[in-house]
Design a protein that fits this description.
about 140 residues, seven-stranded antiparallel sheet, 4 helices, globular, single chain, alpha+beta
């Protein structure tokens, strides 16, 4: 099983960070490998909300996946599950108040199969590096507001 974790702080309150993260319109601004993201479930974001996203990583073909909010407790917890797509890596963010800031803890995990399983050590490093970059973007975007 592939598993990565990261903890970081953002100088904004948890509800601001949470609300930014759950908006599909913001996704490509902080997860910069996303070329497209749209909420395909009606209504405001909540548990069960689905987002269609397209991802393009350097040296790879673009792919599409459907992500579902499997856990949703505003403003403290967001868990995502890949419903359809080739990258079976789920994630969970927890948001805790830390004075005027938010302490964010992130975990990602997934069972890899076939050739991906053989490449697991390299994929783990790549996934960790990619999410570290995403989270730097997230911090930068929110703190610039």
């Amino acid at each position: 099983m592939l598993r990565v974790e990261e903890t970081f702080s953002i100088e904004r309150p948890p509800q601001v960070v949470f609300d930014y993260v759950v908006q599909a319109d913001n996704l490509a601004d902080w997860q910069t490998s996303k070329t497209f993201a749209e909420q395909i479930t009606d209504g405001p974001p909540r548990r069960g909300t689905r987002i269609r996203e397209r991802t393009k990583m350097p040296g790879r073909n673009e792919w599409e996946q459907i992500v579902e909010f499997a856990e949703f407790e505003r403003p403290r917890l967001l868990g995502t599950h890949i419903v359809e797509g080739p990258a079976p890596i789920d994630g969970r963010w927890t948001f805790e108040p830390d004075g005027d800031a938010t302490r964010v803890h992130f975990e990602a995990w997934g069972d890899l199969h076939g050739p991906q399983r053989l490449l697991q050590p390299l994929l783990k490093l790549a996934v960790a590096r990619q999410f570290k970059k995403y989270h730097r973007n997230l911090r930068r975007n929110l703190e610039a507001r």
